[in-house]
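Researcher: Can you fold this with flavin-adenine dinucleotide in place?
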Amino acid sequence: MGQTLPVHSGLVEHLRSVVGAAHVLADPETRAGYETDWTRRFSGRAVAVVRPGSPAEVAAVVGACRSAGVGVVPQGGNTGLVGGGVPGPDPAVVVSTGRLDRLGPLDAAAQQVTVGAGVTLARLQAAARAGGLAFPVDLAARDSATVGGMVATNAGGLHVLRYGSTRAQVVGLEAVLADGSVISRLSGLVKDNTGYDLSQLMVGSEGTLGIVTAARLRLVPEPTGRVVALVGVGSTVAAVDLVRTVRRSAEGLSAAEVIYGDGLALVCEHAGLPAPLRRRWPVYVVLEAVGGDPTEELFSALAGAGADDDATAVAADPAGAERLWAYRERQPEAVAALGVPHKLDVTLPAARLADFEAEVRRVVAATAPGATTWIWGHLGDGNLHVNVIGPDPADEAVDAAVLELVAAFDGSISAEHGIGRAKAAWLHLSRSPAERAAMRAIKSALDPDGVLNPGVLLA
Ligand SMILES: Cc1cc2nc3c(=O)[nH]c(=O)nc-3n(C[C@H](O)[C@H](O)[C@H](O)COP(=O)(O)OP(=O)(O)OC[C@H]3O[C@@H](n4cnc5c(N)ncnc54)[C@H](O)[C@@H]3O)c2cc1C
């Protein structure tokens, strides 16, 4: 117990009595992995990491922390990229959802499933597939990211242009509020107009309004066919044009991603992959289509868009598709291997995306000479991930410059990762005073003591 701050030792003892001593991690070695986020840019001190096994235990943990005046930070897979799942400047209790891992039977009639907040995306996807269905949200962190974290951040990912983000898949939620009460809308009713939609209020709230303990999720039929193409083009303008043209004729288009020549070369070096095409291109677009005969449909759409055979690699088998996806999906880890990234996940109006891409490189070079800029993203959604390597993790000059540029281009400072701690100081760039006041009023009404994720989203 020498490891616990004396002021918190009573709280830690109480938490042990609530969830069992085995589920309270208080020594520095076991806490460490929960105290620093995936990027290594954000970290804080956990009073303890608590692993409750039921909503009642979550409620008791929240109650104990509220009485002790200690903040609660919900954490799922800790793959969030904006520092929202780790403590901030004040020590807090991390509530890890790993034991809320019940995966209910598939409801084939409703095409839905009820899933514990701690279930990983990969486990949910595998269970849906085994029943001939699919959970349509997908992202590269699937082996660690949890349903609770995806709901809390309204995760987007690779298939938003076809199926929407996590929000569109949520039929209802179960969540523990700051006062310890539990709200539960898990009956699966698709039509339910009985007042405020509290489940949707929780979606994207980043653990500031409640701790999600389970979700009732929509599933879709498992696609019968899938084809992936990687296409080299000469510029961002050409990439945007290609996606616009293909989208018009390929009804089954389910992903349209962008990577740049330098990023692709970095992934090849980092992961030991061969170059995908005979020659190098400045920009690459990864397209995926699903349906009855997606290969024919995608080929004819690409021909219509004037894509050159020599500039295109196609795979319709699962192993080949995975190989092509690796050039896009391994960008984050390849860049993180270079240093601690400043990650700026933003959306732009489609018509201004290419101008922004050129301008942001100039702005970063002017703000942080010597820094390197790496860009990839979900082109079909206007969503670019701008990653800057070089500036000290605590230096926010480049963050400010990029986010202000996004606002000048009428974009959003967060496309899909949320605001977290990383962007809380810039929320005003995307939300008006009236919107921020309404958000604060909701927060004060549901969490008057500010116990849930203090400092996240609303600084
Ligand atoms: C390689 C890589 C690729 C990624 N690709 C994408 C992508 O394509 N699209 C995308 O949207 N994101 C992506 N992400 C970001 C991340 O995977 C998502 O934000 C994901 O939803 C986080 O899930 P998690 O369980 O890891 O949440 P955590 O990181 O643990 O938490 C994230 C936020 O949710 C809150 N939270 C977690 N669980 C709960 C809960 N049960 N109740 C209430 N609040 C909770 C936390 O407090 C925190 O604010 C990627 C990350 C990595 C590392």
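Model: Folded with flavin-adenine dinucleotide in place. The two ends are 33 Å apart (CA to CA).
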